[in-house]
Write a structure and sequence with these properties.
The structure is a homodimer of 332-residue chains. Chain A has 332 residues and is of the alpha/beta class. Chain A has 11 helices and 16 strands. The two termini of chain A are 31 Å apart. Chains A and B meet through helix 7, strand 6, helix 8, helix 9 and strand 13 of A and helix 7, strand 6, helix 8, helix 9 and strand 13 of B.
Amino acid sequence: VSGAEVRPLRFSGDALELLDQTLLPGEERWIRCAGATEVAEAIRRLAVRGAPAIGLAAAYGAALSARDGGLEDGCRALVEARPTAINLRWAVERVRAAAVEGGPGAALAMARRIESQQVEADRRLGEHGATLFGEAERVLTHCNTGALATGGSGTALGVIRTAHARGGVSEVLVDETRPLLQGARLTAFELDRLGIPYRVVPDSSAGALMARGLVDRVIVGADRIAANGDVANKIGTYTLAVLAERHALPFVVAAPLSTIDPASPSGEAIPIEQRDGSEVTTVAGTEVAPRGATALNPAFDVTPATLVTALVTEAGVLRPPYPRSIADVLAR
Amino acid sequence: VSGAEVRPLRFSGDALELLDQTLLPGEERWIRCAGATEVAEAIRRLAVRGAPAIGLAAAYGAALSARDGGLEDGCRALVEARPTAINLRWAVERVRAAAVEGGPGAALAMARRIESQQVEADRRLGEHGATLFGEAERVLTHCNTGALATGGSGTALGVIRTAHARGGVSEVLVDETRPLLQGARLTAFELDRLGIPYRVVPDSSAGALMARGLVDRVIVGADRIAANGDVANKIGTYTLAVLAERHALPFVVAAPLSTIDPASPSGEAIPIEQRDGSEVTTVAGTEVAPRGATALNPAFDVTPATLVTALVTEAGVLRPPYPRSIADVLAR
């Protein structure tokens, strides 16, 4: 881990500071959130994103609301900021329970604990995931699942990082990940700093790259995993899974256990956030579609468990049948 | 056909004028090409694009080169402007042969004939394709295959237009088509003018839209079709074909016979243009990836004939086995 380590957030003692990811890689600007309302707003507008990082930010936001005497309202605003990532609710509930039990000090301590647990979970997850790799693989990934997405070393990108350090990765093909370009903007930014070879590719090229034999493995993160192993993740993930199956490539999902939602029996139970169409019709501040054009903009899709080769968690690599392997790992 | 008909080019008597498609939909600017060199350059930088429209532009470019006394050099520059679309070579060779036979006047007459044949081919193609549609289908399309791409009423979009006029289409889902956004920019522009309901969607959402039951049919154009029915078309087409097969949706290709290349036995023989990575790392004039990031930018992919449900041409709807149906239609 170099001195150039990227972090999505830092707690300053009386406020949560977030690296505004909407401005990366062009500008590194930190924004200050003095209370839960500001944190919720930052989550909603994607200044911080990535399921685990959203959870961390919301944990600190909940701790701020405990300090400010608006715990219930603050927690509600945070949980409602985005609907799909389950880590958000999971983190807020833990901090809320700590606050109810032990007051603001206990709430902040819990937020800090969630952060250090996340860092440790990422480290272990990277270790477990790296065991899947052969030699010098060319890996395709989607969206951003690195330090910016988790506050640790990352989920899928953390696995890539560990595997690369051991010779298991020769190149990362980075889906640009429309509409918000988290791949081209954020994953490229992180890989650049880490010195891992990569090329950005249009999302639509994945099939052609596989057909030309340029991809050995697909690895992605998750925003919520159902009890049966269905995976909700950034829009485009399902398409990659279908293509990987056709080309007999391993399709790996890497996520901390906090991403698993035992209350969602299958992907059908997972709410999919629909975001504003202007994210599609406007690119980098420029309107590209005709004035008045409407767009569909589902932020996530659901990949059925049958397409998932392996599920990497901090507790080890889970394999099908997922209903059993997931139940087992959660019961430990 | 309304008065708002869009045209990609017009021959002014002593020059070819092209509607600069790189500026649409924001600006409608016509550029003047006084000779074959300017036409080749306009084709290379995508001021005119779409396999049939490239063919038309090149036909007029070749006629200009015949007038200017540089027939061979002009034709070579035009044919080399882009490698994948076969219509380009086909059109240039016809005009060149006419020039050799009958001089500049015959060359220009041939270019005009190719244009009127294209308009008529599109009309017939639309009629044949429309017969495939049921009632009020929701159709997914990729890239731009309308008037801007052909100079007539379009290939896939021409079919959609005819089918819509007969109640066969209720909505068009328009893949934005990265990297150059021909869907969001050009197809949306044409559908807007035609008054056909549409929504722009990120390319990566196609799988999710199909899984949610929002798509009844996929229809696309082609840049070159091999003798066995393999289809080279805009990057992302192959992915759509794989997804359509998984969801048991018809995957239809619409293209004039001039797009079929009997000299390419299969897709493997078709040269795939690799364009500059900056088209991916820069969006609408803004650099989105980190400075120095490299990108892979294959402009086309190949869809195997086995994934193509039907091939719509001006001579009728071809069905598998394509080696036979294609040979039959070309022998007529």
